[in-house]
């Protein structure tokens, strides 16, 4: 088995192979479809070939920037287009590609890798853990009344403040750079969010609203006319579906939700990518108005360098924790003393007794603050070495706002 990067000459082989692995026939670049593969970076695409040169497997990475807790922006390799031909499955092709890819990423100085999993059982063995979650909220219009926020007008509740902005409806094609700019402002402040490199917008790769798929876009502007949010939506058979709501603060999110919920001739509104603990649910006069469905894992995180990753994110409570980390796929094991002071962490190898023993995939799950270490202790994945260890870890890893990602790749 040979594993090598593609070149401009055989990117089409890569695209054909990944389509065959998924059982799809490659689409032609039709208006409305969007071409996800046009965003691929040729030198980051891997082909697995048999001894006689037949391509049987694919895997690639995108160069993203990931927002960590504390608004730290770091590079993250976004694994995508993983596929093995049905004729060659369960023979170790994916395992060989994952080993090759992780080794190459490390050699290139990367310390974090992320992905979206087609099936949840695939990637734990390679050290990836689910780190952000998503869901959709369906709101019947007859229950859509919003309650007045109780804290409105108090000095310490700016996020619930009044909305003096405006909403304008544009066609997707009329939006120019607005969506790209607003998304970029949003993702820099949202832990778990990924950058959408300019080429994605320019090439119209991916899913709406990046792709040219016909959509209406409700653009929210602040009182000075500066765009600070948008909702991309379509209406079919009485259901208004919002693909994504991007807002630079909670008041803008509510204004866009109110706009969507206020449509005539619509029986229900579906907000995609709204996590089940989103404040919007608390805004309805009827708490049961927002029906949560499709609650699922979204972004998986894999740490490639534990000290670098842990010192890169922001921290919100001082403390010390000794982590005994096992990385069976890469055959590594390390024990680290994590010391947090004034929002910054130091992380060094230690011989001290551990507070927690955990797999690298579990560290990926708790890294962004979206999964409490105590949950994984209770699930039997993380071992706590003394009664206070899980609470100590929860306190330390907790973040100022939950991570969320809605980018598809
Ligand atoms: C980030 C993304 O791109 S997600 C997209 C993933 N791709 C797909 O879902 C496309 C369809 N599926 C496929 O192409 C293949 O089945 C793949 C890529 C998921 C797996 O490729 P394979 O070459 O068969 O995997 P490989 O043989 O290396 O298996 C390694 C281990 O994972 C297990 N495994 C592989 N796929 C799955 C799965 N879908 N569910 C559960 N376990 C799995 C294998 O049983 C094996 O376990 P073992 O080591 O205990 O025997």
In summary, what is this structure?
The active site is at residues 123, 409. The protein is of the alpha+beta class and 409 residues long. 22% of the residues lie in helices and 32% in strands.
Report on the structure:
- This protein is an alpha+beta fold.
- It has three domains: 109 residues, Gcn5-related N-acetyltransferase (GNAT) (Aminopeptidase, 3-Layer(aba) Sandwich); 162 residues, Gcn5-related N-acetyltransferase (GNAT) (Aminopeptidase, 3-Layer(aba) Sandwich), CATH 3.40.630.30; 92 residues, SCP2 sterol-binding domain (Nonspecific Lipid-transfer Protein, Chain A, 2-Layer Sandwich), CATH 3.30.1050.10.
- It has ten helices and 19 strands.
- Strands 1-2-3-4-5-14-6 form a seven-stranded mixed beta sheet.
- Strand 10 and strand 11 form a beta hairpin.
- The longest helix is centred in the N-terminal third of the chain and has 15 residues.
- It starts with a strand and ends in a 12-residue tail after the last helix.
- About 3% of the residues have low confidence.
- The protein binds acetyl coenzyme *A.
- The site of acetyl coenzyme *A has 23 residues, from helix 1, strand 4, helix 2 and strand 5.
């Amino acid at each position: 088995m040979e594993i090598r990067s593609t070149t401009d000459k055989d990117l089409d082989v890569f695209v054909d192979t990944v389509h065959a692995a998924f059982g799809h026939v490659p689409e032609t670049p039709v208006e409305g479809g969007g071409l996800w593969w046009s965003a691929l970076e040729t030198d980051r695409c891997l082909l697995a070939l048999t001894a006689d040169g037949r391509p049987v497997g694919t895997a690639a990475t995108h160069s993203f920037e990931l927002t960590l807790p504390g608004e730290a922006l770091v590079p993250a390799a976004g694994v995508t287009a993983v596929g093995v031909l049905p004729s060659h499955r369960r023979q170790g092709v994916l395992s060989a590609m994952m080993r090759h890819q992780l080794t190459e990423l490390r050699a290139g100085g990367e310390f974090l890798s992320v992905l979206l999993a087609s099936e949840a059982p695939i990637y734990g063995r390679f050290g990836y853990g689910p780190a952000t979650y998503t869901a959709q909220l369906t709101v019947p219009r007859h229950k859509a009344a919003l309650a007045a926020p109780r804290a409105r007008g108090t000095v310490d509740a700016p996020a619930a403040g009044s909305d003096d902005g405006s909403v304008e409806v544009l066609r997707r094609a009329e939006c120019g750079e607005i969506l790209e700019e607003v998304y970029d402002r949003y993702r820099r402040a949202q832990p778990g969010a990924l950058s959408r490199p300019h080429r994605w917008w320019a090439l119209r790769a991916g899913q709406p609203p990046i792709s040219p798929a016909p959509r209406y876009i409700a653009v929210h502007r602040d009182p000075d006319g500066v765009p600070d949010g948008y909702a991309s939506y379509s209406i079919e058979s009485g259901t208004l579906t919002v693909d994504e709501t991007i807002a630079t603060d909670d008041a803008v999110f509510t204004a866009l939700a109110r706009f969507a919920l206020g449509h005539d001739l619509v029986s229900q509104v579906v907000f995609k990518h709204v996590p089940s603990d989103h404040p919007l649910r608390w805004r309805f006069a009827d708490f049961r108005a927002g029906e949560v469905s499709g609650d699922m894992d979204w972004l998986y995180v894999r740490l490639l360098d534990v000290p670098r990753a842990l010192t890169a994110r922001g921290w919100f409570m001082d403390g010390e924790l000794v982590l005994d980390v096992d990385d069976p796929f890469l055959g590594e094991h390390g024990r680290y003393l994590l010391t947090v002071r004034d929002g910054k962490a130091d992380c060094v190898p230690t011989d001290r007794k551990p507070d927690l023993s955990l797999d690298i995939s579990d560290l990926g799950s708790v890294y962004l603050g979206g999964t409490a270490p105590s949950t994984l202790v209770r699930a039997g994945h993380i071992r706590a070495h003394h009664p206070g260890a899980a609470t100590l870890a929860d306190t330390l890893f907790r973040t100022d706002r939950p991570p969320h990602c809605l980018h598809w790749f």
